[in-house]
Write a structure and sequence with these properties.
Layout: E1 3-7, H1 12-24, E2 30-34, H2 38-46, E3 57-60, E4 63-66, H3 67-75, H4 93-111
Parallel strand pairs: 1-2
Antiparallel strand pairs: 1-3, 3-4
């Protein structure tokens, strides 16, 4: 089963994060979908994900992971030292998510947003749902 990352397609930080993951996901473990896309909305509905959630979402083995847990689980499959961040899952979730929430609440202010989702390049199109 594919590991799917749902992201905010109009958030510049989120879009750059997807590009960061793609560059380090040499085995193409992850597929991506913007939450604003038809398939993204369909996945959100299928997995009964709150539409008010302010998080990157990882769907793996039919389970949904949010906030810092999603990020750290994603790191597990990235090349290089990034996979070492996976061990931070031992840090209590409230502490990890406190930092995540600061970035999430300020991401538009700090990094900006676009009016629409951008389309992937032809060579990356198969990674997007």
């Amino acid at each position: 089963m594919d590991k799917i990352i749902l992201f905010d397609g109009i958030c510049n930080f989120c879009r750059h994060s997807v590009q960061f993951i793609i560059k380090r996901d040499k085995n193409a473990v992850y597929k991506f979908a913007s939450i604003q896309s038809d398939i993204g909305r369909e996945i959100v509905y299928k997995h009964n994900i709150s539409t008010n959630i302010d998080s990157l979402i990882l769907i793996e083995n039919n389970q949904c992971y949010y906030q810092s847990t999603a990020v750290l689980k994603i790191c597990k499959h990235l090349k290089g030292e990034w996979k070492l961040l996976y061990c931070l899952l031992v840090v209590p979730r409230p502490i990890r998510n406190y930092l995540y929430e600061i970035v999430a609440k300020n991401r538009y202010k700090w990094f900006g947003q676009t009016d629409s989702c951008s389309l992937p390049s032809p060579e990356l199109k198969n990674r997007f749902l």
